[in-house]
Write a sequence for this structure.
């Protein structure tokens, strides 16, 4: 099965959800698929009013990707704090974080299935990521969920942010 | 247009506006980089800031305030010329998923035409046009 077949299958089984731009006036240039965990976050984590607002702010950040806007992306090490899309070390794991800087700052973790197609798997509050154990936990979730969804299919791999994201720029 | 927007809807558009302002600065900066060999150091000198601060501003929309946007654009010999986009004049797009998608719309969250109509300020019976 191709990666497209596997994504279609996962969506039809309710394991992944396709995330189009929030409003259908926007053209779609890239694709994001999300797990139930990310869907719950976007729709209002713990049914809390502040979290509903935070979910909408994250949605705007993700829609920026989906609508094909220029994306600042990097492979650089951890100290590159303010970039929005970043492939984590170690690179062979092919795990990316999406940084959403509104308060409370949070990170979405996932992998690319192909260029411009991102599978968003899990998330964490930035303040909880000061310890390596939380980073490792998030990375393990991504790897485990990837195996469950796509079996032996490897995540997409590239040598430059532009290999993953069209119109990506590094600062 | 008489319906009240939720705080969530307002938060979405606030974040989008921040992202668009950031994109405006970024796009112009990279145009100057590509066409004129302009650098972050050049920009920093022109507006009396250090290069590290310029880097932080260019990397993330949340680091930008209106005054900062003004400084950065002035540093690139420009200014902001905002337009008000009437959402209700924009076409609704039928094709929202990739060409290869073979899944039911039931598995696409937040496709709520009635709610969209409230936000977009138009009748829910408006036909999709693209």
């Amino acid at each position: 099965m191709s990666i497209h077949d596997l994504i279609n299958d996962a969506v039809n089984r309710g394991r992944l959800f396709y995330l189009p731009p929030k409003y259908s006036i926007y053209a779609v240039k890239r694709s994001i698929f999300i797990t139930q965990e990310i869907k719950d976050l976007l729709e209002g984590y713990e049914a809390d009013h502040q979290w509903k607002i935070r979910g909408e702010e994250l949605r705007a950040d993700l829609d920026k990707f989906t609508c094909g806007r220029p994306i600042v992306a990097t492979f650089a090490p951890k100290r590159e704090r303010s970039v929005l899309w970043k492939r984590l070390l170690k690179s062979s794991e092919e795990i990316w974080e999406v940084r959403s800087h509104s308060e409370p700052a949070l990170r979405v973790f996932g992998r690319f299935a192909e260029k411009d197609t991102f599978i968003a798997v899990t998330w964490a509050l930035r303040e909880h990521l000061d310890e390596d154990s939380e980073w490792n936990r998030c990375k393990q979730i991504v790897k485990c969920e990837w195996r469950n969804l796509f079996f032996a299919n490897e995540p997409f791999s590239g040598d430059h942010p532009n290999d993953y994201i069209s119109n990506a720029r590094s600062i | 247009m008489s319906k009240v927007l939720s705080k969530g809807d307002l938060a979405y558009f606030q974040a989008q506006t921040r992202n668009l302002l950031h994109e405006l600065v970024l796009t112009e900066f990279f145009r100057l980089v590509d066409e004129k060999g302009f650098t972050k150091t050049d920009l920093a000198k022109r507006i009396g800031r250090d290069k590290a601060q310029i880097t932080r501003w260019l990397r993330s929309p949340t680091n930008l305030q209106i005054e900062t946007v003004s400084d950065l654009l002035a540093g690139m010999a420009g200014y902001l010329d905002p337009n008000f986009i009437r959402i209700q004049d924009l076409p609704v797009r039928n094709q929202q998923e990739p060409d290869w998608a073979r899944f039911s719309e039931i598995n696409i969250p937040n496709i709520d035409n009635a709610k969209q109509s409230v936000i977009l300020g138009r009748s829910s019976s408006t036909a999709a046009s693209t």
